[in-house]
Structure prediction request, 563 residues.
Amino acid sequence: MPSMLIRRSAMPGFNLAMGITVTMLSVIVILPIMALLMRGLVWGPAEIWATVSSERVRGALFLSFRLSVLAALFNLVFGVMLAWILVRYRFPGKRLIDAAVDLPFALPTAVAGIALTTLYAPNGLFGGIAADMGLRIAYTQAGIFVALVFVGLPFVTRTVQPVIAEIEHEVEEASASLGASRLTTLRRVILPMLMPAALTGFALALARSVGEYGSVIFIAGNIPNRTEIAPLLIVIRLEEFNYNAAAAIGIAMLLISFLMLFAINLIQIWSRRRIGYV
Amino acid sequence: MSDLIAFRNPTEESPWARRLLIGTVVSILSLLLFAPLFVVFSEALSRGWMTAVESLGQRDAWQAIRLTLTVAAISVPMNAVFGLAAAWAITKFDFRGKAFLITLIDLPFSVSPVVAGLCLVLLLGANSTLGGMLVGAGVPIIFALPGVVLATVFVSFPFVARELIPVMIEQGRAEEEAALTLGASGWRVFRTVTLPNIRWALLYGVLLCNARAMGEFGAVAVVSGRIRGETATMPITIEMMYNEYLSVAAFTLAAVLALLALMTLALKSILEWYHADALAATRRH
Prediction:
């Protein structure tokens, strides 16, 4: 079968490599996802819609999505600032910070979850300070926001950093020599160059946050319609052995992920046309 | 570069702007990254070293550690083999549907871990056709070790392939083709030509894959059934201990995973600093 699709090549091992790739991909990724979609198909689109549009599920999906957008927006601004100082400035501890940016990738989500909860709970270090000011962070939507900012922190920085490193100094010199203030140069010259990469990072952070579970459930409080995220609702339905409802929410989340993946691809195509690199 | 002298390089921000920017960024990072890391260790040691070490010696804790090591020992090599095979097929050959294949490989990154677990439960759980047959044959997958391994492989699936593909595209096929014309066998070309070229990128991918495999929570929480000693990996055990108000035990186990994360970051940084030319372009900073 593959010989029809493949161009002749002297390189050996196509059948073996492709065989391993396709087999593992099918068994581990594609078949399970098919099983989810099949479950939904058998149950019927009307039933799925009824489940997804019920108040509790809709609330959970909307909460996950809304807080993920807010957290990703925070990370968009913060990530560009962080990437800028890491590439352009020299200050003590810079290498340490550069290495630490990836901590949210390396630290297991459950560990991050209990650590953030301990810090931001009313009897914790930061939570206590907030409580004195009359604010509650843990067990409210603010707590979920903190956890989602944590998990999405590295994405924008890591996509923007290489782009900043590649900016030619002449561009800034030209802008300055034409009389632009530094702020104008940053806003009108530098920022547009960073935008495609930053948006890619934004979309990646968003995709990650929407499905995030481990770091959120400890700090969330998990009150239906208030601080209950969509992945938690799937876990709850599974524990009730309500597989159909769990599958319905799962399909809705999968759809959101696919839409976001599609958006990322569009951003990349658009930016390649416009700038030529990302 | 004194502040008193009027001249300032027009392509740099003013010293005050720099200080403000660095200050803001470092404060936010302290609140969000450094403080949580610190808290893991301070909570673990809040009752002294002895209590922490004792809690690690308890049955639940060391069974969880052993299970996590077992799961990583199976799933990381699986993903390494997959990553090598996928990168070889994608970079050494031209075929139709290549872009689609790459999208499929990246798919697990955009699926929520909980949804990944759900998919596996629906495919292989006891009440599915396939799962029912497997349970009947005495090989339960869900709520057992194989399910935990499958969930872990799913969530860490793209790591190795993602690191290898850009590096192997950059290196091209000329060296392998030269070796082939000199009469080397395919396997020998892979071992003596390709592998030395990609070893640092492979190590980098395996490192990230391992960190994710040992720390995975959402997908494993769904498929494991949280059975102590059988499917409760370290992150699952941390959750159970935390919910039972065994704070020191939970944070001690968390500290072990945090140490692993710090080691991963250190090794990763070393690779980025000393072997940058052997990694994908986006990793060189």
Observations:
- Chain A touches chain B through 102 residues (CB under 8 Å).
- The longest helix of chain A spans residues 55-88.
- The mean pLDDT of chain A is 90.
- Chain A is about 80% helix and 0% strand.
